[in-house]
Amino acid sequence: MNHILYSTEDLTGILKAESFIQNKDILIRTILSDSRKLSDINHALFFALKARRDGHSFIAAVYEAGVRSFVISDSEFDTGAYPDANFYKVGDTLMALQDLAAAHRSKFNYPVIGITGSNGKTIVKEWLYQLLVPESNIVRSPKSYNSQIGVPVSVWEMNEENDLAIFEAGVSKAGEMENLAKIIRPTIGILTNIGEAHSTGFESLNEKISEKLKLFEGVDLFIYSDKYLDQYDGEIPGKNKFTWNYRGQANLEVFDDEVLEERFQFLRARFNGKDVQAMIPFTDQASIENAIICWASLLAMGYEPEEADKRLEKLIPVGMRLELKNGINNCSVIDDSYSLDLSSLAIALDFLKQQKQHQRRTLILSDIPGTDSEVVYEQVRNLLENKSVDRLLAVGEQISKYVVDYPFETECFASTTDFLEHFSSIKFYNETILLKGARSFEFEQISQLLTQKVHETVLEINLNALEHNLNHYKLELGAGTKIMAMVKAFSYGSGSFEIANLLEFNKVDYLAVAYADEGVALRNAGCSLPIMVMSPDAMAFETIIQHKLEPEIFSVRVLNQLMEVLNRKNMENYPIHLKLDTGMHRLGFMEEELDELLEILVNTKGVRIQSVFSHLVASEDPEHDEFTRYQIDLFLKLSERISQNLNYPFMKHISNTSGISRWPDSRFDMVRLGIGLYGIDSSYDSKSPLQTVTSLKTSISQIKTIPAGDTIGYGREGKMPEGGKIATVKIGYADGYRRGLGNGKGKMIVRGKEVPTIGKICMDMCMLDISGIEAVEGDEVIVFNDQIRVEDIARQLDTIPYEVLTGISQRVKRIYYYE
Fold first, then answer.
1. Which of 53, 29, 776, 782 minimizes the C-alpha distance to 474?
2. Where on the phi/psi map is residue 275: left (φ > 0), alpha (ψ -120 to 50), or beta?
3. pLDDT-based confidence at 594, cuts 50/70/90?
């Protein structure tokens, strides 16, 4: 949202559009491109983007929600079907969105910092915000909004109250930066680094650097490190240049560093011929480099070295992703309290609305920093109404002045301390709670009270990565093939309603569970998608029917048992799914059983076939391709026999994750997407386009120095002939870290380095050999992530990734991240 209002005449001119105006009085201040995330509908302009799905197909739903202004590109679109709506017809809706943001940017003359690089963009942006906010009213990219859509959405938030802007830009292939540069038009440019990330879209390193540097053409000041541009053969932009280097010549030349108190890095450098220093509260290499970039930026912008040092020492970690956790009294807690502005509030409220496990939604919201404006809090009110918030707990003197007339349950507290003092009298029960507070309000104190206290070992689930993987398969499949997402076995160990909510929000077509109680849990959590139960039991048919679940039928016996229940209830056309056995020989009708099956189906009105399906045995393995082809052919033959005997259509599906990738002709009407959602698809030998979804982390309980010759653990199997240092960590076989990973077979990551297990794995803990590692008690330990992958652990155990993921104990805390 922003304070500048655009008229129909303004938009027609900026967009160079063919306009169909039915209401000249509509003024625009909000831009939308996702039909699932609507706000400020009376002043909103919806862009029908042609991305994974054509935005034109969602205009009816957006119109029904109340939006009356649309940018379209489909020349055949019937604008007359939408009375009192305004339409702006353009050649390319994405280009139109970018043109509108560029026009908006041109209205402001204050400094704009543009940031790009392979890594660290969001961290540097957020830290610069922390460093510069004392004297500036800053608008910045929310989260990591740096794409072709994210950049214009970010720049649109510029308004007259700001006096500084900080935007990040990301590109993945040649030809993308020019569009972003014309939108941001930075006056100050910062290049974080050049690395391997996002390199597949470029033919060479030189092309990649050249593309990123397009952002900085014409900047007054360009801040960078020579070490990342020493191989570049083009012209370096910037009317003025400021360089930094770690032990190399530059305007800011860092020549020495030292770790202090195990959590501070003390840096010494030369600047303008003088020795300067800075203390930063981080010791990992990535944070040190990002902090040096911020240090260089402060000095380049004219801050005195002493002032820069004072501010850098106060940097705080950036929690870029909101967290979804289990809370007290059967609540869900969304913790997004590291920063607060209208843009990030809107994003967090969208995620809150996406949660369906509880009917009641509560928002705990602090003062919005940098503003004490009735207009801003009126926009907050509109947001909360649009996002279906039921209760607001307002914390802060400013916000408390404006929320008294909000049309929902509201309670005000003068400060976080005041809130904590009244905590015991506030009722939290069976609801979803969003924590959204400015850093100065220290909402982590509230989070600690609301969050369920469980095991310190944590399985982190990156919902953005899961969404990315889903969209990868959607693109590969195209619009004509439906997706059944497998969420059995606690969604491969990753969660229940947390995963289902995201899948439903992203419009998968079906969910599949193993047992009826899994489906019931999803229904009780608000899931409305069709759900197939793959292993129904006769005792569960009443429950299946009650909760509108759809059973897999794999034998005449099970079919007859279901029909007995349906007949008793006088029910007809109950949806079922027929399983055919084409070679798996686990469950399903064999070819010779089809005659008996068809006789029953033809003579009953009790059931209706939703789909006929089978299961590929070895779709991932080229060695068995001949058998896979046999299965596909047999499936087509058997399903055709069924079709010829029924007078209605049904869906066919046989492809699992690897079948989608390796057997495109087997996709049929629907596919069953399972472990590929979690970033694992064995059909990709290398350079997988999928992202890692899960990370398992624990911490060090104790560190010991072991004398030469001593042994470690049960059976004295952990031997240290030369002595050394060990760390005991909080994970064992009761958590799912198998005993087969003991005695050095398993590896974990401590302080960025892989270290082996030593001795046998215990029930609740195990030991690591950390000789030579400067670790301290309480340090984070990574069990698996995108460096030590689940597939690697599976190979060490001579098993499959499924078993590793589903074996993670329920006592291990799950935390869900989403940007």
1. 53
2. beta
3. very high
Average pLDDT over every residue of 807-818: 87
Euclidean distance between CA atoms 435 and 613, whole angstroms: 44
304-351 residue pLDDT tens: 999 999 999 999 887 657 888 888 888 999 998 777 888 888 888 988
Task: Give the residue numbers annotated as catalytic, written as ranges.
Answer: 488, 714
Question: For residue 200, how many other CB atoms are within 10 A of its CB?
Answer: 10
Q: Would you state the structure tokens that stand for residue 326, as one six-digit string?
A: 């289990």
Sheet arrangement for strand 221-225 = 138-140, 164-168, 112-116, 188-191, 221-225, 240-246, 252-260, 264-271, 274-280
CB distance 606 to 566 below 8 Å: yes
Q: How far is CA 71 from the centre of its chain?
A: 28
Helix, strand, coil share of the chain (percent; to 5): 35, 25, 40
With residue 384 as reference, give the H or E element that holds it.
helix 374-386
> What are 641's two structure tokens?
């026999």
Q: How far apart are CA 136 and CA 114, in angstroms?
A: 16
> What span, in angstroms and rounded, lies between the C-alpha atoms of 160 and 153?
17
**CB-based contact 593:638 (threshold 8 Å):** no
pLDDT (tens digit, 9 = 90+) per residue, 397-414?
Answer: 999 999 888 888 999 999
Instruction: Please give the Cα distance from 172 to 158 (Å, whole number).
Output: 26
Are 604 and 566 in contact by the 8 Å Cβ rule? The answer is: no
Q: Where are the alpha helices (DSSP H) in 616-655?
A: 625-645
Q: How far apart are CA 564 and CA 568, in angstroms?
A: 6
| Strands 780-784 and 747-750, bridge-based pairing | antiparallel
Q: Where are the beta strands (DSSP E) in 104-237?
A: 112-116, 138-140, 164-168, 188-191, 221-225
Residue 247 to residue 108: CA distance in whole angstroms: 39
Q: What number of other Cβ atoms are within 10 A of residue 426's Cβ?
A: 13
Query: In sequence order, which residues have a C-beta less than 8 Å from that of residue 199 and are 6 or more positions away?
Result: 205, 208
- CA–CA gap between residue 512 and residue 532 (Å, rounded): 5
Per-residue exposure over 295-330, b if at least 16 CB sit within 10 Å of its own CB, e if not: bbbbbbbebebeebbebbeebeebbebbbbbbbeee
CA 311 to chain centre: 31
Residue 771: count other Cβ atoms within 10 Å of its Cβ. Answer: 15
Rg of the Cα atoms in the chain: 29
In 10 A of CB 126, how many CB atoms?
Answer: 26
Q: Would you state the structure tokens that stand for residue 541, as one six-digit string? A: 């048919």
Strands 322-326 and 332-335: antiparallel
Do 438 and 366 meet the contact criterion of CB atoms below 8 Å apart?
Answer: yes
Between CA 390 and CA 434 the distance in angstroms is 11
Reading the block at residue 784, the tokens are 């698996």
Cα separation of 415 and 421, whole Å?
Answer: 10
The reported pTM is 0.79
The CA-based angle 696-697-701, given to 5 degrees, is 145
Look at strands 264-271 and 252-260 and give their pairing.
antiparallel
Helices (runs of H) and strands (runs of E) counted in the chain:
25, 38
